[in-house]
Specification:
This protein has 232 residues and is of the alpha/beta class. It folds into two domains: 131 residues, Rossmann fold (3-Layer(aba) Sandwich), CATH 3.40.50; 73 residues, Alpha-Beta Plaits. The protein is built from six helices and 13 strands. The strands form three sheets. Strands 2-1-3-6-12-13 form a six-stranded mixed β-sheet, sandwiched between helices. A four-stranded antiparallel β-sheet has the order 8-9-7-10. The structure holds ribulose-5-phosphate (5RP). The site of ribulose-5-phosphate (5RP) has 19 residues, from helix 2 and helix 4.
């Protein structure tokens, strides 16, 4: 079974947690895309939901599938957000942001009563950090911000290259909010809680891809089927 099959399984199982009439946050990435497609099939049969997308990409797909969309301005409180992750640990601390949507993803998840993470089995780790940590940074003064990021990271035992993400044309990648992303190849993050707080105090940092105390449940697709992981 491929990783994508596992993602699809997790996304399908997530439908069991969606009730008719719910206000939902819709994540970004390939796993979230499976969920949006499954949800689109249910909506086509008359299932009622209203959703806040976490990216322009997810909004486009949901619109194509006829899923009713709203905004946080119109619907500030959501029942549930379902989204993918790049890594998660036993405490359900997440690294997110490979898709460049971490800021909207965090805003939408924290506007929700619950967040469910859907992943393939490879995303579960003992220690976060093998996957690069994304940090969203305002373009103004970004080199200075990156220097502060390196210094703060080192204080939290995180060494490794920090590089500005480029798009497929070699131009700086821009998020939906027109910010840059810096990817931090730390290898290991010994103190995710401390690092997340300290990074967000740097002027110019909008947010980082560590989601701490936000996810309530992970649905993990694996070779033997899906299993649920709650924070320990
Ligand atoms: C996007 C994200 C994604 O949820 C994360 O990158 C997982 O992606 P995928 O489901 O494609 O493996 O955080 O910003």
């Amino acid at each position: 079974m491929t990783a994508d099959d596992q993602k699809k399984q997790a996304a399908r199982r997530a439908l069991d947690f969606i009730e008719d009439g719910m206000k939902l946050g819709l994540g970004t990435g390939s796993t979230a895309e499976h969920l949006v497609r499954f949800l689109g099939e249910k909506v086509a049969t008359g299932f009622k939901v209203v959703c806040v997308p976490t990216s322009d990409r997810t909004a486009k797909l949901a619109t194509e599938l006829g899923i009713p969309l709203t905004t946080l301005a119109e619907t500030p409180h959501l029942d549930l957000t379902i989204d993918g992750a790049d890594e998660f640990d036993a405490a359900l601390r997440l690294i997110k942001g490979a898709g460049g949507a971490l800021l909207r993803e965090k805003i939408v998840a924290t506007a929700s009563d619950r967040m469910i993470v859907i992943t393939d089995a490879s995303k579960q780790v003992d220690l976060l950090g093998a996957f690069p940590l994304s940090v969203e940074v305002i373009p103004f003064g970004c080199d200075t911000t990156a220097t502060h990021l390196k210094r703060i990271a080192a204080e939290y035992g995180c060494l490794g290259e920090i590089s500005r993400r480029a798009d497929e044309y070699g131009e700086p990648f821009l998020t939906d909010s027109e910010n840059f992303i810096y990817d931090c190849q730390f290898g290991r993050i010994p103190d995710p809680d401390g690092l997340a707080k300290a990074m967000n105090l740097i002027p110019g940092v909008v947010d980082n891809g560590l989601f701490i105390g936000i996810a309530n449940l992970a649905i993990v697709g694996g070779p033997e089927g899906t299993h649920l992981v709650e924070p320990e």
